[in-house]
Each structure stands twice: as structure tokens, then as C-alpha cells.
Amino acid sequence: MKRLSFSLLWVLITIILVAILLFPVYQATGENYQFYLPNAVAIVVAITLTRYLFLLDYHWFGDINWLKVVLAFAVIPVALFVIDSHYEFQRFLDEDGIHSILLDGKSSAITGYIRNQFILFWAWALIACIAIPIKMIRSIWRSYKAKIK
Question: Higher pLDDT residue, 103 or 92?
């Protein structure tokens, strides 16, 4: 029960962080920003997978090896989605630019925030997607070795 409530608490924290990070973007662009979903996914993936990397023993599936195998392979399509989202975002920056979707119509400090925030969480999510299979395989191997002894 403790592990499940720990996970639910982190889900709540992640949702709050997504709202806090995307609210300035919404204030500046309104509905014009077409990358809310990819941006939110990158934030959620980055935070959640990092949590699994460092706090796996405190999660409800920390002892379930078959679920770790599923997670190790499930990050592949997630990583592809994150990479594709970044390419789309970069294409948008190159062709239109963030200033084209701002509500006030002029470039401001928010353009740097939008770009840097998306790229930060994109890179973080991609690194976490690469690291999570290694962590899961290591965790499975350790539990297997513990059962043998």
C-alpha cells in the first residue's frame, strides 16, 4: 500500500509540474501552440522514467520482473514519439518561428522559454528512454542472482 501511494503521489506531482511548466506557454500563445501534447509527454516521460531510474525499489512494480521487461521494451515507441516530436518542433521553429503564434504578435522573452523548455525536456526524456532498459535489465539480473543464492 505504501508503494502504491508513493506512486500516486508522484503522479500528482508530475501533473502539477506539467501545469506549472506549460501555463506560461498557454498565456503567451493560447490555443495557437500545437505542441502541448508532445511537450507534456516529454515532461511526463522525463520525470517518470527518472523516478524509475532512481527510486525503483519504492514503486509497486519494483519486485515484478515481467513488468520490468515490458517497461524496457515499451520505452522504444515512446522514444520514437519523443524524437518525432522534436523534429516536428524543430521544423516549426525553422519554417514559422515561435513569434508567429504569440498572442501579442511580437517576439519576447517567452520565445526563449518555450524553445529551451521543450528542448530540455526532450533531451531529458530521450536520455531517460535510453537509460531505463539498462536499469531494468540490471534490476532483473540482481533479483535473479538473489533467488539463486
Answer: 92
Q: What pLDDT sits at residue 106?
A: 66
What is the residue extent of each domain of the chain?
2-148
Q: C-alpha angle 75/80/81, rounded to 5°?
A: 95
Using alpha carbons, list the distances in angstroms from residue 99 to 24, 67, 102.
15, 44, 5
Cα Rg of the chain (Å, integer): 18
User: Which of 2-6, 62-66, 117-121 has the lowest average pLDDT?
Assistant: 2-6
pLDDT digits (tens, 9 = 90+) for 3-50: 788 889 999 999 999 999 999 999 999 899 999 999 999 999 999 999
SS (H, E, C) the chain: CHHHHHHHHHHHHHHHHHHHHHHHHHHHHHHHCCCHHHHHHHHHHHHHHHHHHHHHHHCCCCCCHHHHHHHHHHHHHHHHHHHHHHHHHHHHHHHCCHHHCCCCCCCCHHHHHHHHHHHHHHHHHHHHHHHHHHHHHHHHHHHHHHHHC
